[in-house]
Amino acid sequence: MIIKRKKLSLWERLYLPAMLGGFKVTVRHFFKKKVTMQYPEERWVVPEGYRGAPYLVKDQEGRTKCVSCQLCEFVCPPKAIRITPPGPTGVPGAGNVEKAPAEFEINMLRCIFCGFCQEVCPEEAIFLMQDYSLTGTGRDGMIYDKDKLLALGGVHNDQTRKWNRKAEEARAQGVKP
Amino acid sequence: MLTETMSTAATIETKPQPPPAEKIKVKVDGKEVAVPKTTPDPVTGKPLPTSMIQACAAANVIVPHYCYHPKLPVAGSCRMCLVEFGTPAIGPDRKPIVNPDGTTKISRALRPVIACATPVSPGMEIYTNTPAVRLMREGVLEFLLINHPLDCPICDQAGECKLQEYSVDYGNSESRFVEAKVHKPKRVELGPRIVLDDERCILCSRCIRFTRDVAGDDALGFVNRGSHSTLTAYPGRAFDNNYTLNTVDICPVGALTSKDFRFRMRVWFLKETRSLCTSCATGCNIVIGSREDAIYRYEPRENDAVNSCWMCDHGRLNYKWIGREDRLVEVRKREAEGRGQASGSRSAAPTWSAVLGEISQKLKAAEPGSIAIVASARQTNEELHLLAKLAKRLGALTDSVPRIAAGDKLLLNADRNPNSTGARLTGIAADPMGSNLPAIAGGIRSGRIKTLIVFGEDATKCGIDADLLDKLELLIASDILPNATTRRAHYLLPGCAHAEKRGTFTNTKGRVQKFLKAVEPRGDARPEWEYLHELLVNVTSRDGIASIEGVFNEMAKEVPAFSGLTWATLGDTGISAKI
């Protein structure tokens, strides 16, 4: 297909009017409020419901909420999550919570912040938080282990507290929880 | 009494076939099937009236159930298999009433019945998918879930749990039960290999019936009443026989868990591979559960000609050696000068092709009668056959090593080699097995035997001592784990565990069964049949088919006992050879 070049009028061929038009836009923005942010010194306010990096949370008693069911590992599309279950002994110190991960790793280089892990988690143990810019000095450093994830995640103020309720129920019936 | 039940359950194959029973015709959801009037009891073998659930199974209709198990006596306690039915209406003349269109008039029963414990009668019609049946299943399930904890994320059964599956089909999304659930003991150690969570138990009594009627150890029972009924072991006695872990398999929920597998891996990650147990000559059919080349569990696979639905704890837990750290993973060559020194000098990284070439040259050059082969009855039929062919070519003295320990009356055989019959049929083993070993030792001592090939055994443990091995001019060893023989070998060929290769075993009754590959071999290790085939081709200068199917089919042509068999026709459950 051949497109014919439009023949320019004299006004267009003068060049200066177009330049002046552009300059007008520049001058208008020069006196407007600045929109550029001085990142990373300045940071934008992360909106509610933003899907940042996934971290693990603890409950009010300081126990890892994750019970190592490995559903997030199963659902994770880029296979960023790797969980090592605790083995037959479980977690002796966590009361009636029988199971917790021995190790929980998220490869933040693989993570695509899709939020499937939070969606699938039956224990409300993993949340996509507000961190969007993760940096490290090497690939190994970008694989976050359980301790790091828990430290970054903090405490989740869970209203249900099902393990406490279960333990109280059992104690009321005279059964060791 | 107990031993009697044990032996009947074990020897399914040798049991005389019952005379063909009279067939009766019933309709399941409108589909007509002919079922025998009586079916042998799974435990005692006595003829019992065929039940509705068996008729449904014959019509390929699955009736949801918890307490019923085809290999156990019927309990009828879970009520999940409730169905509706009708029988031909009988007129005053005691004859079936015929509808105007010529069909038999059916009078529907007023009440439902449990399909597992109701016998079928001629002309009966069974309805398994009516709205009423569905409502009954929903009701039964809701009652079962009243006290069942909702801890699927923690429970090891999740993913293979009947309660979970039927909850998807018939359950509510929310519980109507607002009261506190009944709490029962958790993490109860019933025995050395079993942990029980009583809260999850739905009181189906499968485990009780299994251990009482099949294993012959009446160790389990219920105490207390109603919602407080609790499964427990007999007071002061551990639940500890060689078949305890079968109760974990048949438990429809996560109440009984294996201490070995508990909290190790979620079942949906496990790749399931059809294989065989190698711990004794019974050859139980198993499924290997593996993930990313690590094996997590063995489970029995149904084969009525061998192991029914069961396997012993000894065999089930005997898998950890496959993942051992000290597995032999590289081809090693020890220079002749280094022989006898503690360290044993090794040349730099020998390759498979170089080493097999050197071995072939040396074997070709060896004078007839100067070679002996110690094979292992843990090797597959194909490997033993290739070794036997090599031995015939070289004129070698051969034998394999017997491995005898105490057996039991159910499944565990006293012969702990998985393929003693194969070793006998391929001609590699002497008769009786092991009787040539002193002759081999004597031959080395007198200097007549200069070359020894050892496959999968430690020669120093079967009468050929370390000083005799040091006398040899050439010692070729192939093994999976290091031992005194592999340390002295001039050529060390790393082999594969059964889970890392394909092949066949012949069990003690002569059943040829195949197993498939579950995980990748470690390091440079290769399946033995591969390099044995290569060696044989090198030594005989004759080509052959370098695939396990080809090797098996060739063996079937050459070994009379296996004639007529092919790899493809073996199927999943094997074929009995003519022994």
Spell out the blueprint of helices and strands.
The complex is a heterodimer of chains A (177) and B (579).
Chain A: H1 10-13, H2 16-30, E1 54-56, H3 71-75, E2 81-84, E3 103-107, H4 116-120, E4 126-128, E5 143-144, H5 146-153, H6 162-172
Antiparallel strand pairs in A: 1-4, 2-3, 3-5
Chain B: H1 2-10, E1 23-28, E2 31-36, E3 38-40, E4 47-49, H2 52-58, E5 82-88, E6 106-108, E7 113-114, E8 125-127, H3 131-146, H4 162-170, E9 188-189, E10 194-196, H5 206-214, E11 220-223, E12 230-233, H6 246-250, E13 256-258, E14 271-276, E15 285-291, E16 294-300, H7 313-316, E17 332-333, H8 352-365, E18 371-375, H9 381-394, E19 397-400, H10 420-425, H11 437-446, E20 451-455, H12 466-471, E21 474-479, H13 484-488, E22 491-494, E23 503-506, E24 511-515, H14 528-540, H15 548-558, E25 575-576
Parallel strand pairs in B: 1-8, 18-19, 18-20, 20-21, 21-22
Antiparallel strand pairs in B: 1-2, 3-4, 5-6, 5-7, 5-8, 9-10, 10-13, 11-12, 14-15, 15-16, 17-22, 23-24, 24-25
Structural commentary:
The complex is a heterodimer of chains A (177) and B (579). Chain A is α+β, with helices and mostly antiparallel strands. Chain A contains 6 helices and 5 strands. In chain A, the strands form 2 sheets. A 3-stranded antiparallel β-sheet of chain A has the order 2-3-5. A two-stranded antiparallel sheet of chain A has the order 1-4. Chain A is elongated, with a radius of gyration of 27 Å. By secondary structure, chain B is an alpha+beta fold. Chain B has 3 domains: 23-90 and 99-141, Ubiquitin-like (UB roll); 147-323, Alpha-Beta Plaits (2-Layer Sandwich), CATH 3.30.70; 332-498 and 525-545, Rossmann fold (3-Layer(aba) Sandwich), CATH 3.40.50.740. Chain B has 15 helices and 25 strands. In chain B, strand 15 (285-291) and strand 16 (294-300) form a beta hairpin. Chain B is elongated. Classes of the chains: A alpha+beta (177), B alpha+beta (579). Chains A and B meet through helix 6 of A and loops of B.
